[in-house]
Design brief:
Layout: H1 8-13, H2 25-36, E1 61-72, E2 80-83, E3 86-90, H3 98-114, E4 120-124, H4 128-139, E5 143-148, H5 178-196, E6 206-214, H6 237-240, E7 249-251, E8 263-271, H7 273-286, E9 290-293, E10 309-312, H8 318-321, E11 327-337, E12 345-349, E13 352-355, E14 361-365, H9 383-388
Parallel strand pairs: 3-10, 4-5, 4-10, 5-9, 6-12
Antiparallel strand pairs: 1-11, 2-3, 6-8, 7-8, 11-14, 12-13, 13-14
Helix pairs in contact: 3-4, 3-5, 4-7
């Protein structure tokens, strides 16, 4: 399902008088242009870091996307069950970690599917988890058919920010048991190793960039005044896989164009999703895979498929398809701006994240509260939300 805004007038209408991009983009854009762009022509940028300016005016917006991440309080579903005469292996509910954990999670799902002994297996869904499940099945010598309502780029995972974030909204902290952590670490490490084989390929499906967090800025919480107490989200990267990313470093004031503010630099892995999804689709089809456009209204309709074993990678769609109310929508929103090949850095400033994707610069409203967008299934850009930024 694509949530790209269909009408130029509507896109412009969704931008507030302060020219906000998806609720806060112009706050970031203005800050980027003023605070971290190249210094004015008549001034020296000073020693150290000087950032190429971003052309982030609202007339350069090429898409406003809203999607619903499939969050489950207890974490992704990876069990197998019998539905009629079919064995269905589930592979969904990854919150904001779908792309990041896709290879590792799909590897586990494939192991369970292969245990049935079937040599023809179906995959339901053609997003990040569906495509990686299908490719891993092919590598195991299985004939695979993908059944899906939509194909990239019209799937929810194509609307993701595209950052390596293997513990983003993965589960509530109370569910991060030792067994859960062990399984999560396996998925994260397996996925990471897969991604290293794709760095530097044509089209740059996977690449690294330096991102900077501006310290000393406290955005206003979108939940200000709320007395609702919510469980903490699990944070696992630093504890379990600190070796998979370079350590960040502080950039001292006076050595960059942000004046007296302290920057924190981190090197981050990024997925250029358009190129990456196209590569996965091409690999699957060139290996003899088949795709059939089909929508399922209920699990009982799986009986019509010739395959006896299925991997269900329907993401948020599992909430309706299976009646799985444990899948909670976690709304995310971003704006894409005409790409600039010279922009090689990212930035987090005042509750907004900027990512230099090749297919379009991405601005995402993160907010000061980690629950921003929780249990919100709206897929329409919200002007009122923009006014709050």
């Amino acid at each position: 399902m694509s949530a790209t805004h269909p009408d130029v007038k509507a896109v412009r209408h969704s931008i507030s008088r302060r020219q906000l991009i998806v609720g806060a983009g112009a706050t970031l854009a203005g800050s980027l242009l003023e605070g971290c762009g190249i210094a004015p022509r008549n001034e020296s940028p000073g020693p150290g870091l000087a950032f190429a300016p971003i052309r982030a005016s609202t007339d350069r917006i090429i898409g406003i996307n809203v999607c619903t991440r499939p969050f489950r309080a207890q974490g992704p579903r990876l069990d197998a069950e019998g539905i009629g005469e079919k064995t269905v292996v589930h592979n969904y509910g990854h919150g904001g970690s779908g792309w990041s954990l896709s290879w590792g999670s799909s590897g586990i799902a494939v192991e369970k599917a292969m245990a049935t002994g079937e040599r023809e297996i179906a995959v339901i869904g053609c997003g990040a988890l569906g495509l990686t499940s299908a490719l891993l099945l092919q590598r195991a010598g299985v004939r695979v058919t993908i059944y899906a309502k939509d194909l990239p780029p019209n799937v929810r995972s194509s609307l993701a920010t595209g950052l390596w974030s293997p513990d983003s909204r993965i589960c509530f902290e109370e569910h991060a048991t030792p067994a859960f952590k062990q399984l999560w670490e396996r998925k994260a490490r397996d996925s990471f190793q897969n991604y290293q084989t794709q760095v530097g390929l044509p089209g740059e499906p996977v690449e690294y960039f330096d991102s900077y967090y501006v310290r000393g800025i406290s955005p206003v919480s979108r939940f200000a005044g709320s007395e609702v107490r919510r469980p903490r989200l699990a944070s696992l990267q630093r504890e379990l896989i600190p070796d998979l990313a370079p350590r960040g470093r502080d950039v001292a004031p006076g050595t960059h164009t942000f004046g007296t503010r302290l920057l924190r630099q981190n090197t981050t892995m990024m997925f250029n999703i358009a190129a990456y999804a196209r590569m996965l689709m091409s690999d699957f089809l060139s290996a003899g895979g088949k795709i059939e456009i089909r929508e399922f209204g209920a699990p009982s309709e799986f009986a019509r498929l010739p395959q006896k074993t299925l991997i269900n990678a329907t993401g948020y769609g599992a909430r309706t398809l299976l009646g799985d109310t444990s899948v909670t929508p976690w709304r995310g929103r971003l704006a894409r701006v005409i790409p600039q090949p010279e922009i090689k850095y990212g930035l987090f400033y005042n509750g907004v994240s900027f990512v230099p994707r090749r297919e379009g610069l991405v601005f995402q409203l993160v907010g000061a509260d980690e629950y921003h967008g929780y249990d919100d299934d709206s897929v329409v850009p919200d002007r009122a939300e923009a006014e709050l930024a």
